[in-house]
Specification:
LD_TPept_cat_dom, globular, 9-stranded mixed β-sheet, L,D-transpeptidase catalytic domain-like, glycosyltransferase, 13% helix
Length: 232
């Protein structure tokens, strides 16, 4: 099950930093840990994807509000590049499965296939597992630091009423908000612009995908979609 509300409160934003007067996205979900995007081009890549193909998949996105820059895929282990894989599951197509032990998020496609995305996940002491569902979706979500975080890091108080969405907002371009039994858990699947965070356990329970991957997943995920978080 999801951990209690006090810890869940830091799941959406575990740490806060400043860089040139703006929130440092690399420290947003990491606490004391280090570091934390172009639409996928019709389908996912196989093991033989070239660097050029990956650079095209993870290229800039001319979004309606803010242009999303290309991701530097040379900073991401190619095993975390988006691809279609064989994945046997009893879950219905569309279900999202988070595998924190291996830093992957799967979208079940049916017929034994899934779309697999590389992810960052919760660090030691902040991992959770269980069933949830997408209670709501946000584009360029407002980020509000929870009281527990403001107490630890008073500089976050300036955003107590919320930080508007944008390129420097920790939640990024797209967010899936996870619920259980009608209640928001404060955990999310969010868009990360930090390539080096993929394949790491650095957050306080939230799950981050590269912005391009998050847009791909977001566009295919309706509210009420089941989310299964496996044990780490």
């Amino acid at each position: 099950m999801i951990i209690d509300g006090r810890n869940a409160g830091v799941g959406e934003a575990a740490s806060f930093g400043r860089r040139s007067g703006l929130v440092d996205r690399r420290s947003f979900l990491v606490g004391s840990a280090v570091s934390l995007g172009a639409l996928g081009l019709g389908g996912c890549a196989g093991d033989g994807m070239s660097l050029a193909e990956a650079q095209q998949m993870y290229g800039p996105v001319p979004d309606k509000k803010f242009a999303i820059p290309a991701a530097d895929v040379t900073k991401v282990d190619r095993k975390y590049w988006r691809r279609t894989v064989r994945y046997e599951s009893k879950e219905e197509p569309g279900t999202i499965i988070v595998d924190p032990a291996n830093y992957y998020v799967y979208r079940i496609e049916g017929d034994g296939n899934a779309t697999r995305y590389g992810a960052n996940v919760g660090r030691d002491g902040f991992r959770w597992n269980g069933d949830a569902y997408v209670g709501r979706k946000s584009e360029w979500a407002t980020w509000t630091p929870p009281p527990e975080m403001i107490k630890r890091q008073p500089e976050a108080a300036k955003y107590a009423r919320g930080m508007p969405g944008g390129l420097d907002n920790p939640l990024g371009a797209r967010t899936l908000h996870l619920y259980q039994n009608g209640k928001y858990t404060l955990y999310t699947i969010y868009a990360s612009s930090d390539e080096e965070s993929i394949g790491s356990g650095i957050t306080s329970g939230c799950v981050g995908l590269l912005s391009q991957d998050m847009i791909d997943l977001y566009d295919q995920t309706p509210v009420k979609t089941k989310v299964v978080v496996l044990p780490a």
